[in-house]
C-alpha cells in the first residue's frame, strides 16, 4: 500500500507546485527547477523528505518543459 501512498503524495506535491508557480516566467521556472535538481542530487537520497524533493523536481521539470514548448511554438509562429 506504500506505493499508492507515495503516488498520492506525489500528486499532492504536483498540485502544490503547479499552484505555487502558476503564472511564473520561464526564467523563474528554470531557476526553481535547477534548485530542485540540486536538492535531489545531494547525498542522502533515502533520507526523510527525499521522495517529496523528487516529486517537486519532477513537477517543476514538467512545467519547465511545457513552458519551453510554448515559447518555442510562439517563436515559430512569430517567424511565420
From TrEMBL:
It comes from the Bacteria. This is Uncharacterized protein.
Amino acid at each position: 500500500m506504500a506505493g499508492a501512498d507515495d503516488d498520492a503524495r506525489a500528486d499532492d506535491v504536483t498540485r502544490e507546485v503547479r499552484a505555487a508557480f502558476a503564472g511564473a516566467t520561464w526564467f523563474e521556472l528554470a531557476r526553481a527547477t535547477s534548485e530542485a535538481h540540486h536538492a535531489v542530487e545531494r547525498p542522502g537520497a533515502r533520507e526523510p523528505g527525499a521522495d517529496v524533493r523528487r516529486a517537486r523536481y519532477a513537477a517543476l521539470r514538467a512545467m519547465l518543459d511545457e513552458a519551453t514548448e510554448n515559447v518555442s511554438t510562439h517563436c515559430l509562429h512569430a517567424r511565420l
